[in-house]
Design brief:
Layout lengths: L1 H13 L12 H9 L2 H7 L7 E2 H8 L3 H13 L4 E3 L7 E3 L3 H5 L9 H14 L2 H6 L24 H4 L6 E5 L1 H8 L9 E6 H9 L4 E3 L1 H14 L2 E4 L7 E5 L5 H7 L12 E5 L9 H5 L5 E2 L8 E2 L19 E5 L12 H11 L5 H17 L6
Antiparallel strand pairs: 1-3, 2-3, 4-5, 4-6, 5-8, 7-8, 9-12, 10-11
Length: about 375
């Protein structure tokens, strides 16, 4: 019975846009057993991507409203589901994807067994073709790599993304933290993930980070450049977060780097150009590049550029002492289409996987409306 419960939950998570594919080893089921009690697993399958109040979920699950509210609130605090909680309104609950979602929400509650299982699972979880068509994250250049004459849109500048935010939270990087737990990784700053607005409310409410102002957020972005961290916001023009990622720990960058042409798998508006005559072969840029796009052969007078490996992060440009490297905007036909909102980004992922088509979306919406009516709830 317990095994069937977790298989049902695994299938439920795999129906979400972010996926949760089955494996031959069953490691994904071991992960769910470590995270969810059987009771929590049984309740989680009744949540959708539509935020719903406890009475609605209670009716669907066949339990009392009081029991549902208590369990759902506890599950949100444990990072198993997502919640929207505003003063003066009933809390609403929705399903959380495994990545980006449940895994990241456990940054402060990792143990060696969970880390081991997730590291076994993530290489099988990551689908490079799906990521190419509908990435969850995109890459934007570090600020110092952009020139004044660049035509740069606001959602392509990390510094612009932290302006006019209602709330900003900085959280630990789960990738660097879990690598350190295994005696690996690097010494780059761990407190480096910026979370915004509604997502920041969730992080702060559940003790996953600390609230900061825009000035400190900009300092963290500058620190990321100095430390050689790639800036990866959520794949939406109104970003929900900016991850500051290193090539040695970040599971996304590590899997992208394994591809023969990483540039094709990353949503980025820019690419680097090289003036080989100006290069003095100082050797700094190959150490900064997380994709191996720049190499310096022994005795060479200049670095060599493999453009097909460049993801446009700008880390090589910001530290080139002779300005031999520069970013340029990709041709119009190679510009990524960035969804306007996180909702549109999630729907893009769903379409890429053949999930949540028009009929499925309509059915989910109608079911939610029907359950709300039967539960006596009005949509707010």
């Amino acid at each position: 019975m317990s095994d069937a419960t977790y298989r049902k939950l695994a299938k439920h998570l795999d129906e979400l846009p972010g996926s949760f594919p089955a494996t031959d080893s069953g490691v994904e089921l071991r992960i769910l057993r470590r995270l969810f009690t059987p009771e929590q697993a049984e309740l989680a399958v009744h949540l959708t991507l539509i935020p719903e109040a406890a009475p609605v979920v209670a009716r669907r699950a066949g339990i009392s409203t009081g029991a549902a509210l208590e369990r759902l609130t506890a599950m949100a605090r444990e990072g198993l589901i997502y919640s929207l909680e505003k003063e003066g309104s009933k809390p609403r609950f929705m399903a959380a994807q495994f990545v980006v979602g449940i895994w990241e929400y456990h940054v402060n509650s990792l143990d060696e067994e969970l880390v081991r299982d997730v590291n076994e699972y993530l290489p099988q979880f990551f689908d490079p073709e799906l990521w190419r068509r509908a990435p969850q994250l995109r890459t934007v250049p570090v600020g110092r790599s952009l020139k004044m004459d660049h035509h740069v849109l606001a959602y392509e500048q990390a510094e612009a993304m932290v302006r006019d935010r209602r709330r900003i939270v900085v959280a630990p990087c789960i990738c660097r933290r879990e690598h350190k737990m295994q005696g690996a990784g690097c010494d780059r700053p761990e407190e480096a993930c910026l979370i915004f607005d509604g997502s920041a409310d969730y992080y702060l409410r559940n003790g996953l980070g600390r609230e900061i102002g825009a000035d400190e957020a900009r300092e963290i972005l500058e620190q990321a450049d100095r430390a050689g961290l790639v800036l990866q916001p959520s794949n939406s023009q109104k970003a929900a977060n900016i991850c500051c990622c290193c090539g040695c720990c970040c599971q996304v960058l590590k899997n992208v780097a394994r591809q023969p042409r990483p540039a094709e798998y990353v949503s980025s508006a820019f690419r680097v150009t090289l003036d080989a005559d100006a290069c003095v072969a100082c050797g700094v840029c190959p150490q900064r590049c997380p994709m191996g796009a720049l190499t310096l052969a022994e005795g060479a007078d200049a670095v060599a550029l493999a453009a097909e490996r460049c993801i446009g992060c700008g880390l090589c440009v910001s530290t080139c002492p002779v300005q031999a490297l520069a970013l340029e905007r990709k041709p119009e036909g190679e510009q990524p289409e960035v969804p306007a909102t996180l909702v549109e980004s999630v729907l893009q992922m769903a379409r890429a996987r053949g999930k949540l088509g028009p009929l499925a979306l309509a059915a989910t919406g109608l079911r939610s409306k029907f359950d709300r009516l039967l539960a006596g709830e009005r949509r707010r």
